[in-house]
Design brief:
- About 30% of the residues lie in helices and about 10% in strands.
- A 5-stranded mixed sheet has the order 3-1-2-4-5.
- The N and C termini lie far apart (about 110 Å).
Length: about 230
C-alpha cells in the first residue's frame, strides 16, 4: 500500500499584503496623477465661475442694443441726466454716486425684466463708495463712460461696452477710465480681478470675453475704448 505524505501549505488562508516598496510606488503614482489632474480641475472651476458673468454681460449688452435701436441708436447712460421727475437717468437705475441703485428704474430694465443678471454670482468685497442706505448694492457692471450719447458701432469690436467693475470703485454704473489714458481730470475706475486675476467684458459688437487685468489696463492706457478712434 502506498502512503502519500500530505504536507500542510502554510500560505493557505492567508492574504498576501503589499510590501513597503510597493506601497511607496502606489503613493508616488497617485501623487503624480493628482499633480497632473488638479490644475485641470482648478481651471475648469474658474471657467465655470466666469460663465454666468459672461452670460449676464451678453444679455445686458443685447438689451442696450435693443434700447439704442428703439431710440435712434443713442443709449443715454450717464448719471444725473434723467431730468426732473426722473432721477434714475442711466442704464442701470443709478442717480447719484454711491446712492441707491434701483434697477427697475434703469433704461434697459424693460428689455431684461430680471435683476439677477446685473450682479455677478462671484461678486464679493466691500463696496467702499456706497452709502449704507444703498446696500446691498445690486450692480457688478458699469458702462464705458465715453459711450454717452454716442452711437454704438457694432464694428468696434475692441471698444468695451460693459465691464465687471471692481467692488472698490463701483458706485454708479458708469466706468470712468479716462484717467488711465492720461486725463488728470478724470477717474481711474478699476476693472475687477475676481475671475482668475482678470475680469469679464462685453464689447460693442456684443462678443463677451474674459480679459486679464493687465490687458484691460493696457487697452485703457492706449485709449482703445474711445469710440471716436474707430
Amino acid at each position: 500500500m502506498d502512503y502519500t505524505c500530505i504536507g500542510v501549505d502554510r500560505n493557505v488562508g492567508r492574504t498576501k499584503g503589499f510590501t513597503l516598496v510597493e506601497l511607496l510606488v502606489v503613493i508616488a503614482i497617485i501623487a503624480i496623477l493628482a499633480g497632473l489632474i488638479f490644475p485641470v480641475f482648478v481651471s475648469v472651476r474658474r471657467k465655470a465661475k466666469q460663465a454666468p458673468c459672461l452670460s449676464n454681460l451678453r444679455q445686458l449688452g443685447m438689451a442696450i442694443q435693443m434700447y439704442a435701436g428703439d431710440y435712434g441708436g443713442f443709449p443715454v447712460v450717464r448719471i444725473f441726466e434723467g431730468g426732473e421727475g426722473n432721477p434714475y437717468g442711466n442704464w442701470a437705475g443709478c442717480y447719484i454716486y454711491g446712492g441707491v441703485c434701483d434697477l427697475s428704474k434703469g433704461q434697459i430694465y424693460p428689455y431684461v425684466n430680471s435683476a439677477s443678471i446685473y450682479l455677478c454670482p462671484s461678486a464679493r468685497g466691500v463696496k467702499k463708495n456706497i452709502f449704507p442706505d444703498a446696500l446691498p448694492y445690486p450692480l457688478s457692471y458699469s458702462m464705458n463712460a465715453l459711450l454717452s450719447y454716442k452711437r454704438i458701432v457694432a464694428s468696434a469690436s475692441r471698444v468695451g461696452l460693459l465691464i465687471h467693475e471692481d467692488s472698490s470703485t463701483i458706485d454708479d454704473g458708469d466706468f470712468n477710465w479716462m484717467g488711465w489714458a492720461g486725463d488728470p481730470d478724470e477717474g481711474r475706475n478699476q476693472p475687477s480681478n475676481i475671475h482668475n486675476e482678470g475680469t469679464c467684458v462685453v464689447y460693442c459688437d456684443l462678443h463677451a470675453e474674459w480679459q486679464n487685468y493687465d490687458t484691460v489696463i493696457r487697452a485703457l492706457t492706449n485709449n482703445d475704448w474711445d469710440p471716436d478712434k474707430h
